[in-house]
Design brief:
The structure is a homodimer. Chain A is mainly α. The first copy, chain A, is built from 21 helices and 6 strands. In chain A, the strands form 2 sheets. A 3-stranded mixed sheet of chain A has the order 1-2-3.
Chain lengths: 430, 430
Amino acid sequence: LESGTFKQVRRMLNGLQPAEIAHLIESSPPPSRRVLWRLVDNEGEVLQELSDEVQAQFLRRMDAAEVAEVTEGLDTDDVADILQQLPDRVIREVLAAMSARDRLRVESVLSYDEETAGGMMNTDTITVRPRLTLDVVLRYLRRHDEIPASTDNLIVVNRKDQFVGLLPLSKLLTSPPTITVREIMVTDIDPIDADLADNEVANLFERNDWVSAPVVDKDGKLLGRITIDDVVDVIREDADHSLMSLAGLDEEEDTFAPVSLATPRRAIWLGINLITAIVAAAVIGTFQETIEKVVALAVLMPIVASMGGVAGNQTLTVVIRGIALGQIGRNNIGWLLSREFWISVINGLLMALAMGIMVALWLNDMNIALIIGAAMIINLLVAALAGTLIPITLKSLSIDPALAGGVVLTTVTDVVGFFAFLGLATYFYS
Amino acid sequence: LESGTFKQVRRMLNGLQPAEIAHLIESSPPPSRRVLWRLVDNEGEVLQELSDEVQAQFLRRMDAAEVAEVTEGLDTDDVADILQQLPDRVIREVLAAMSARDRLRVESVLSYDEETAGGMMNTDTITVRPRLTLDVVLRYLRRHDEIPASTDNLIVVNRKDQFVGLLPLSKLLTSPPTITVREIMVTDIDPIDADLADNEVANLFERNDWVSAPVVDKDGKLLGRITIDDVVDVIREDADHSLMSLAGLDEEEDTFAPVSLATPRRAIWLGINLITAIVAAAVIGTFQETIEKVVALAVLMPIVASMGGVAGNQTLTVVIRGIALGQIGRNNIGWLLSREFWISVINGLLMALAMGIMVALWLNDMNIALIIGAAMIINLLVAALAGTLIPITLKSLSIDPALAGGVVLTTVTDVVGFFAFLGLATYFYS
């Protein structure tokens, strides 16, 4: 690169929003990433917009002092998120390199799990007392240089710093300046408990259309607030989780992860699937004699297994999403199971008929036509039951249904598909 | 139900947030849904929180006057969303039953596609002129009874109602009352064009951490504004799209859709997969003679096809998500393809070795061990290339890669898997 072009690229790059720069970095293969990263001026802002996995790639090359320098001035929750990518020893070093005030704030967020309200919160709250008049509040605000982003409410606290209510800016602006905070504050909103799981926090925000919400500890003491931009990240990751897990991938998987990172992860998944495929092959193995007699069975058997897999996967996907959205519970499993049963009865008959007719015409053999039709109906029924019950059972065992569900389901539909088809054929031809 | 209990349930239900009632309705099978719906007082608010498919189920039982009554007082964009579920004739009837002011507003939103900024926008903007002093603005606001939800900026417009800039409430509150709007307004933010696609709008909100943003027409005239709560819905639906499409389902699929709705939709998908399974079976059919000679081939062949399917699905999922996030473009396909190639070379060798050793020990047949190892490497390589190129090609043909990608990929990995394994065996044993 010539020095002139280089400067121009640097200027263009730093003219973008930090999130746009982060998107550009995440859309680049690793070699270009390192070049882009060296051109970035505002490293902290860009770093916090990157996904965990890409963050970790850059952090690995920085020492504690650099991390402390780069993260200065970021929101407390973002600093905590970044630090959580580092080994404990380095976290301590980074904290030691911070100013005392920043350190205290970051430590308060770090003491909570990353996937709880405490780990998502920010400490940049503006608080007021209930007995103040709005006029005093307005003058107090004017003494601030700026108000933190996404502030739609001031938080009303008592002398012990406990949450009392919210003073929406919209009410502050539309009410007469002489009345007190107590008279117009909103008290019918429950603050968020610091231990609440992040997806529950997201549900609360979605259902109440919140822009920000206060976070309290067990004694009702105000700890910080959560803003909608961090909630949006949780929603995006949660929604990605099922998609990625069904393929044995992590929802934070970096699209451009290097070969050295991606290969071993995928090998584990392939290894698990090799074992289940061998189980299905072993089922076929027990029917070798029948296949030797009627080789057409070997030609048709993958159709039965594959149709069961596709039907089961439809049910599985609907149920896994229903579980993720919190729609499925003990009181509606029965209805769901019976619906899936009837769908598979109807579609099973339909597909069995279509396949049966084709086989009868193709091979001119009514026996195999009847056998494949019956096996298909059996496998579609089992697929519907398995697609419903496997994720629900895994969930109740606290195993991630999206990660384990697909493997278990395919094993069931393969084994049942081969067993039903070859078993019926063996019975018929022996 | 006794009348007393009935009243109690009704009171409890209506004590919930509209979004919570909507979630309860969506988590119930159709018969309970109808009972719950009859108990709801605040029908419009609940209706707009329901997903399109469930909305449509209730709307089908209402006449135009009822729809007009129920939607009165809702946000313009929510009314438009609800109306879009209805046939054109009914929409005209509902519009005729509205007040002239509401009708004009809803018509302005309805004139845009539901999946554009125009279809997402709300008309409840508060506008100010640049020459006003903040003091005048504050007095103007105090004449309002309330400020619309998620208002973080007032919108500054000129005499022709064209967008000039934003006046953040935070700046209004921290600046001296004597200065003018012009002096502190933010002008470096581009308003959103009404024709922009909804997922692009979501990207803008995510990258800039916006709470609300103004929408303008081609001449820069202010039409309305979009708020973060509607953007969150778009993000959720977009993220669900890939998951559901890969199973041949719609992202708005109702978890408790009745048998009559769910069965025909799934039948189409099963029918498509039946055809691709028959294609794969036809490939096996051409090798019947070889299978007759060595029946162990029939036992092992599903393993080769299945491993190719799993490996290809991992690549496909990563690429489909990368496309959905806008990370994959012409300039990085090459890098991605070569990474997937090397991953599949390494994992292909690993799995081929594992499988080869097992087959050699199990069947005590080195020939089949070598054949299955070679077929597996070939299929994993093809799976990696297909998993990368299929979604990218579909995308460039404007076909949804998430919907069509899985079917095409499985067909490729099945056909190649059977062909490579049985073809090599035929060559070897003939």
